[in-house]
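Before drawing any conclusions, I looked closely at one protein's amino acid sequence and its backbone structure tokens, quoted below without any editing.
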Amino acid sequence: MFEQLKALIEDENRVITAGIDEKYYSDHLGHIKVKPAAVVIVASTDEVSKVLDFANLHHIPVVPRGAGTGLTGGTVPTEDSIVIDLTKLNRIQHLDKETMTLTVQAGVLLEEVQAFAESNGLFYPPDPGEKASTIGGNISTNAGGMRAVKYGVTRDYVRSIEVVLANGSIVELGSKNIKDSTGLDLKDLLIGSEGTLGIITEAKLRLIPKPQIARSVLVPFQTLEEGIDTVLDIKASGVDVAAIEFVQKEAISLSEQYLKIEFPTHKGNAYLIFTFDGDTASHVRDNYEKVRELCYQHNALDFLVLEDEESFEITWQIRGAIVKAVESVSVQEPIDIVVPINKSAEFVKYTKAISNRHQVAIQSFGHAGDGNVHLCIIKGTLKEEEWQEKLQLVLEDLYQKAAELGGLPSGEHGIGLTKLKYYLDYANEVQITLMRNLKKAFDVNQILNPNKAY
């Protein structure tokens, strides 16, 4: 049956049924691996439509895939499925400076969008840690990142999307218009749906003027609690801050070893990293001086304005390399729980207690400005059976605590396969029923990215 796919695609070599590359079995972590029945590397929206029409007719599961940088098993296929590889849909189509929108295909990388926008004096603010992810993947998980505290998340920068529905229909959801009270917002239903309602093939992204000046500041504290208390006061003060990250000393040490570079300070046990941006040096300076005062009120050990390029680059390289640094020394399970911002320190403190209780190393870091706590649960020298047992106990404790604090299982990575159990354990039954009914409305035969999200 899968041989019939070749007649639908201009180049039959882009339909693979034998010798499928193992990268299609999983996502970035590779913890769950399943060989699909076929892979189709599409080169147009029309080809996506043809494949979905075929799959829907024959009730064949379809799993959309971009760069494969996901961390929750969201692109893991089923054995009888077709994987649609969207990476050849990689053209930046059109910049409309009058409406401040950029039209791109789904396979364009985030770093390419950011570079293109900035080369035209514009700015695309969403900034998740993985810059080699695709825009389609970012939209499908509503990716956030470090600048969310000031600028918001991917959803806030999507004007419209071109989507292929499960039956092969092509539809544009949203528009270039800034305001819209015309019917249900179907576009926003697709954003964050992880490929379960339709396959995104193109997007019109909202851009803004590029800030002319940016400065980063590094602030060490003796304890993380002091740092998080500072963040609460900063947010309450209304100071204009583009990014607020927290990281602890142990994670910094791992990154230093991995990158073979040295962090600008080794004072204290926890650090806040800020970015301030704006159109004038005085505006930026005024804001970080207000933050300086608040930091010292909360016992900051120093306040380092990273004026030189080298210190700036080193600081953000070390912050950005934590997950890879952990991966370089051990198998790990990275998760991205989000809790109310005033509960961040309590939750991180709890992770230390859980680490001690189960004798499993856990590194924590994340977005202090929005309560998104990233955790690396580390296997270390544990044997596989013991690791799996302890990992499940740790996860159960962490997700239960997050729920008690009013948090949620995912801040920006999505649910995929690895979080599905914990999501359903604490989800509202009415909401789950509504989402399942929506899934049926979009995808009658339930072929799109099965076993994910709900």
The radius of gyration is 22 Å.
